[in-house]
Amino acid sequence: MAHKSGFVAVIGRPNVGKSTLINALTGEKVAITSPRPQTTRTNLRAIITKKQYQMIFIDTPGIHKPKNKLGEFMVQSATGVIGDADVVLYLFDATEDNISEGDKNIIAQIKAGGKKSPVILIFTKIDLIEKEKLLRLTEMLAKEYEFDDIIPVSARERDGINIIEKEIVKRLPEGPEYYPGDIITDSTVREMTAEIIREKILLYTNEEVPHGTGVEIVVFEEARRKEGKARIEANIFCEKESHKGILIGKDGAMLKKIGTAARRDIERIEGTGVNLKLWVKVKEDWRNSPGMLKELGYREQK
Which domains does the chain have, with CATH numbers? Predict the structure, then answer.
């Protein structure tokens, strides 16, 4: 049997469950998750390698109507991979009652690709709905586009996860291993560290703050001895003084909570102890600053 390999774009609206599905497919936490929409900001690659195949999932930001330059970057990152992927997974939240304008826009983006790649419709969160509703949604979406397959899943229950992998393999072209078989993501530990810190901010702060924050790693030193600790220092940027107060909390309690939770996850990745220091800085309207976006790693896609 010839070896198969290829790139799988995972697209959908914000908070549809893309990162959760990626983690379920790989069996590892390679993408940050939170209950907040627009958690993912850049395209992240997660890799599954088996003897007969290698599939590279591209976890994309949720496709939405951008309100700033960061939003424009996120949407460009997501839509830019549709035409180049070998397989496209289009995720639709099964708890929705109708096809939103946002989803119609995504389907239009798929159609613009000219049917170059197989597109599989994935219904997420099916553990939260009745079967009758799923049938109605299937009929509605089938009228919008001729999908190559339709798979209902619950990443939380791992229902349908194996089916997705099998259906992707059927559609992958013959090809080599693009990545060494022992890695599950091409993200660096430094990049993952910044994302972990941002994940904790999303989890612990209120509705107003999370999307106005960015994380910059300013010091990253690996442990010099087996029993030593890595030294990491990071800036958390926010857009208002009031947000800075929320992020720091009374007597520094919130910042300590964010740092403690982030440190535990970073230590799991590093395999060593970590000395983590965080600072909060105000940069007004940084999400519209090309210089700040570039500094934080949000570079224009070519």
Answer: 4-171 (3.40.50.300), 189-295 (3.30.300.20)
pLDDT digits (tens, 9 = 90+) for 211-231: 678 899 999 998 887 678 999
Give the separation between CA 125 and CA 22, rounded to whole angstroms.
14
Contacts of residue 3, Cβ cutoff 8 Å, sequence gap at least 6? 52, 53, 54, 174, 175, 176, 177
As a whole number of angstroms, the distance between CA 119 and CA 147 comes to: 6
Q: What is the distance between the alpha carbons of residues 69 and 73, in angstroms, rounded to a whole number?
A: 6
Q: Look at the block and give the residue holding tokens 């926010």.
A: 238
- Which range in 33-42, 107-116, 151-160, 166-175 is most confidently predicted, on average pLDDT? 166-175
Closest of 211, 215, 224, 11 to residue 103, by C-alpha: 11
- Rounded to whole angstroms, the Cα distance separating 177 from 158 reads 27
Query: Mind listing the pLDDT tens digit for each residue in 50-68?
Result: 999 999 998 776 555 555 5
Are 81 and 60 in contact by the 8 Å Cβ rule? The answer is: yes
Q: Which two tokens stand for residue 246?
A: 């929320």
